[in-house]
Every structure is written in C-alpha cells, then in structure tokens.
Amino acid sequence: MAARPHPSHEKTATPRATQELPSPFFIGGVLALDFLNSIASPVDVPVEWLGSGEDFLNWLSKANLVQPETLEHMRRSAGPGELDAVAAQARALRNWFRSFVTSHMGARLRPKAIQELEPLNRLLARDEVYGQIVPRSAGSDGETISGLEFVADRRWRSPDTLLLPLAKVMADLVTTVDFTQVKGCEWHTCTLLFVDTTRGHMRRWCSMAVCGNRAKQAAHRERAPRGSKAK
Q: How many CB atoms lie within 10 A of CB 185?
C-alpha cells in the first residue's frame, strides 16, 4: 500500500498487544467506518486497536471480517515481525482513507472522486476471491428453494492478504453509502465517525452513553453557576 500515514493519527498512541485494550467500537453503522474508528479516545486518552500484529488479528476477529481458522493459521505461519508489518500497513491504509472520508463526508460522492481512490483500487486488484457451493446453514428457515448456498472466500496466501477484506468494506462504503449521512461525533475530543440513519438525520454523538452523556454533563456544569447566582 502506497498510502502514507497521516501524522495527526499515527503519533497519538500505539499500545502494544501485551496491554489489555478496551473493547473496540462498532458504532459506525458500516465496517469501513468501524475500521476508521479503530483509533479513538473513549476516556480522553487515545487508544490504538491496531498497534501490533496481534492487536490487528484481534480486531479483525471482533469485526467478524476474517474466519478464526484463517487468523490462527496466520499466527502460526507468519515470520518474525511479519504481522506487525501488516498492522503498520493497516494503520497507513486507515489514515489515508480517513482523510478521504472526512474530506468528502456531508456531501454526495461525485464520480470524479475516483481520482483519489487509485490506492484502494490497486489493493482491490490483488484480491483472489472465489466461491464454493456449500450446505445451507442450519439456522435457515424451511422456505428456501434449495438446501445449498454459494459462499465467497479468498486465498489467504500471505499475511498482507488480511488487508483485502478491509479494502472490500471500504469499497462498499464509497459505492453504497450516502456520504451526506456520514458524520463525525460532535464532542470536541472525539474522532469517531458514523452513518446517521436516524429520522431527520439529527444524530450528533457517537453514543449517547459516552459523548452524549459528556455533553449533558458539560451543559449542566455551565448552567449550574448561573443558576446558583440567580437564587
């Protein structure tokens, strides 16, 4: 990946896999934004969920982007430092794509935006996706016309192929999501992004339990002195 890290994100925090990380955020509405949200400040201090190769594997697992057996194979077969190098590529990819998303969000994505997406298309061109016919999952209802289904998979030839499912969800974002509904949390220290699908598109916070509550507490503190003086 030719993308270069954006300095404002890359130098914030890089916790190691030996540190226990809080659960990552999956509030974006689409996995591409959840990927961009893999660095955030849940309690003011920035947390990096892709700080090492092991962190990256754990995030892919929690995002359900890669099957557990594939991730375990990568753990066993990768050479020294290979997964850490792929995690660094993932961070660079994330920082490049964040710049694209934040520069276009709030407006309809126009065809000329393709000029900025050459790095993504180059990554997509490396994919080796194929499909297989398999028995339909047991959870399916009895109304289906066949007991078989088509399932897509890819050839995981090396650790850097772990970037390919990220490329696919990024492609899904730019081709299927209305960018007028892509927003950033309004809390001043929060960097989380999301798709606002609420009625009237009035969502302001990544989460009412986190930044919405912060905003309410801040508003209450601002009102409290004026209220006490008025008594």
A: 24
3-state SS, residue 131: strand
CA–chain centroid gap for 71, Å, is 18
Q: Which of 183, 190, 170, 205 is nearest to 40 (CA)?
A: 190
Q: Which tens digit of pLDDT belongs to each residue from 78-91? A: 999 999 999 999 99
pLDDT computed for residue 8 by the predictor:
40
Which one, of 117, 131, 127, lies nearest residue 171 by Cα?
Answer: 117
In the chain, % of residues over pLDDT 90: 66
What's the whole-model pTM score?
0.82
What pLDDT digit, counting tens, does each position of 3-48 carry? 333 334 444 444 444 468 999 999 999 999 999 999 998 777 889 9
DSSP class of residue 145?
S
In sequence order, what are the residues at sequence separation of 6 or more whose Cβ sits closer than 8 angstroms to the Cβ of residue 44?
189
Instruction: Tell me which residue of 30, 55, 56, 33 sits closest to 161, measured CA to CA.
Output: 56
The pLDDT of residue 216: 63
Handedness of CA 180, 209, 94, 128 (dihedral sign): negative
Q: Distance of CA 117 to CAs 111, 161, 218, Å?
A: 11, 19, 40
Contact predicate 122/99, CB 8 Å: no
